[in-house]
Model the fold of this input.
Amino acid sequence: VQLVESGGGMVQPGGSLKLSCAASGFSFDVYDMEWVRQAPGKGPEWVSAISGSGAVTYYADSVKGRFTISRDNAKKTLYLQMDSLKPQDTGLYFCAGPKGGTARPDNFEYDYWGQGTQVTVSS
Done:
């Protein structure tokens, strides 16, 4: 099983980034998927989740209206489009497959977990 995130980088406030997470080794299309981030010196923060079909999405209040989660099951890839970025969005962003395949915001129990991609928002 492998989850590989990419697309992070440094961007100015107000800018955009699109993260990708390539999955392999498990039944991606039946798993809800989540994005979680961790800022330096802080605990993990749940960001967003999407159902296996992609029909249902969930967002933390801190990113609602600015971030968009999506997935392409044919490509086994999860995405996070991040717009209107703020300095407080800075952190290491992970994609994760929740335990048992069902997303549970703020539960932080995962079957699969990537290595993360760094996002830095700074002027």
The mean pLDDT is 96.
